[in-house]
Amino acid sequence: MNARGAVSPHPTVRLLLGIWLATSSLAYAQQVTPTPSPSPSPTPTQFSSQTLSELKQLQQAALASEYAYRQVAYLSNNIGPRLSGSAQAQKAVDYVATELRALGLDVRTEKVMVPHWVRGEEVAALVEFPGQAANTTQKIVLTALGGSVATANDGL
Fold it and tell me: Smallest Cα–Cα separation from 85: which of 119, 112, 120?
């Protein structure tokens, strides 16, 4: 007991407590706190003045020509919508590859397996609604979106 009337811990307990405090403090002090690295800034791309001049000429030639517009028009008007995996998508790939080869480019296409969706018949009608005339339904015009699932046969 000490002068205040409190019981002093056993000397061994004090020794163990001191060792524990010293080692835990040492371990804590040795922990390395990672310093956040600054986010890398994008490296500016620098081109020579000759390259910049050639790029500018290429841009001006592209803007002066209607070639790109004709290609887009052909794809849109002759081939049509090109959903992934559709026959139109394959026809568009073949057309563009042929055009690029005609321009002298070395083109190679690769087979790609793409799951695709086939549009089914779209039918919708209100079969029961307030103010409905007897024995009538109200047809609804709609379009199914790619990958959508059918409504159950018994409706909503």
Answer: 112
